[in-house]
Amino acid sequence: MQAKREIGLCLVASVFLATMVGCPTTSTELPVSITAPLKLAQGLIGDLTVEEWLFLAEAGSSIPGLPPLPQLTEAQAQAIVTFLDDNGIVTLTDLQTKMAAGTLVIPQNLISVFIGTNSGG
């Protein structure tokens, strides 16, 4: 009973302080330098945002266990996100399964990005 009362008191004090001081106007979202590697470690490639793909492409070689990715433009990162969304790919396993089944057609512009023949546009 004492613990419940202390938790309730903390909650009331927190609400009171928030109304007196105000809520911060800055975002409380985690930076992509944290979210991108976490999603990748879980194999959740379909959950990566454009910003996270750009981060991984830029910092990939400095992340242990991640092979270097080619540099991406914002349009290329968006194309990756759109491709994964359009094909219902959330995990690396989804991608591997669809590729093995032959049910996935990878657009030439994405192939070019990853084999290094892209002209940057």
Descriptive key words:
single chain, mainly alpha, 121 residues, 6 helices, 0% strand
Model description:
This protein has 121 residues and is an all-alpha fold. It contains six helices and no strands.
Topology:
Blueprint lengths: L1 H20 L10 H10 L8 H10 L14 H13 L5 H10 L6 H8 L6
**H/E series, N to C?**
HHHHHH
How many distinct folded domains?
A: 1
Question: Which range does the strand content fall in?
Answer: under 5%
Mean pLDDT: 77
- Helix coverage percent: 55-70%
Q: In angstroms, what separates the terminal alpha carbons?
A: 64 Å
Sequence stretches where pLDDT stays below 50 over 5 or more residues: 2-25, 117-121
Overall strand count: 0
Radius of gyration: 21 Å
Let me know the largest β-sheet. Answer: none
Based on secondary structure, the structural category is: mainly alpha
Number of continuous helical runs: 6
**Overall 3D shape:** globular
Can you describe this structure in just a few lines?
The protein has 121 residues and is an all-alpha fold. The chain has helices at residues 2-21, 32-41, 50-59, 74-86, 92-101, 108-115.
